[in-house]
C-alpha cells in the first residue's frame, strides 16, 4: 500500500544532513518501537512516486507533527515548504505541532536570526523569484518558533 494511503500518528520534519543519522533516527526508532505509526521520508516514501504531492497527502493524514529545527533547517527550501504545509494543516483540522530546537536557540527560529538569518539573507538575494515564499516561510517559522517545545543542546 502506498504511504499516502495510510494515516500517521506522527510526522517527523527534519533536515537530513543535520539529524538523520543521530537525533531523528533515535526518535523515529523509539516511536516505532512504542507502536506509534510514524512518517519519516526515507522510510515511507514510495520509490519513483511524485514526492511533493505524496508528502502533501501524508501531511493531510497526520495528526501530530514533530519539527526538528537544526542549524541548517532553514537552508532547505524543501523543509521550509514542508513547514508551510504543516502550519496550514494545523489551522484546518485538529492537529498539534511539537517543535524540537536541536542545537539551535528557539529565538533564532522565531526571529530568523543566526543561521536562520543567514539562510534568509541568501534567499533575499533572489527576492524577485522567492518573495512570496519568503513571506510564507518567515510566517511559518515565527508561528512554530513561538510554540512551546523542547530545546536540545550539548549540555
Walkthrough of the structure:
- By secondary structure, the chain is an alpha/beta fold.
- It has a single domain (8-152), classed as Toll/interleukin-1 receptor homology (TIR) domain (Rossmann fold, 3-Layer(aba) Sandwich), CATH 3.40.50.
- It is built from eight helices and five strands.
- The protein has helices at residues 16-19, 23-33, 41-44, 51-60, 77-92, 106-111, 115-125, 127-145; strands at residues 8-14, 38-39, 62-69, 96-102, 150-152.
- A five-stranded parallel β-sheet has the order 2-1-3-4-5, with helices on both faces.
- The longest helix has 19 residues, at 127-145.
- It starts with 7 loop residues before the first strand and ends with a strand.
- The mean pLDDT is 87.
- GO terms for molecular function: NAD+ nucleosidase activity, cyclic ADP-ribose generating.
Summarize this structure briefly.
Residues 6-155 form the TIR domain. The protein has helices at residues 16-19, 23-33, 41-44, 51-60, 77-92, 106-111, 115-125, 127-145; strands spanning 8-14, 38-39, 62-69, 96-102, 150-152.
Compile the SSE list and pairings.
Elements: E1 8-14, H1 16-19, H2 23-33, E2 38-39, H3 41-44, H4 51-60, E3 62-69, H5 77-92, E4 96-102, H6 106-111, H7 115-125, H8 127-145, E5 150-152
Parallel strand pairs: 1-2, 1-3, 3-4, 4-5
Helix pairs in contact: 4-5, 5-8, 7-8
Structural class: alpha/beta
Major sheet description: 5 strands, parallel
- Contiguous low-pLDDT stretches (5 residues minimum) are none
Mean pLDDT: 87
Output the CATH class name.
Answer: Alpha Beta
**Which series of helices and strands comes N to C?**
EHHEHHEHEHHHE
* CATH fold type: Rossmann fold
- The CATH H-level superfamily is Toll/interleukin-1 receptor homology (TIR) domain
Helix content: 40-55%
Tell me, briefly, the overall form.
globular
Subcellular location: Cytoplasm; Nucleus
GO molecular function, one term: NAD+ nucleosidase activity, cyclic ADP-ribose generating
Protein name: ADP-ribosyl cyclase/cyclic ADP-ribose hydrolase
Keywords: Cytoplasm, Hydrolase, NAD, Nucleus
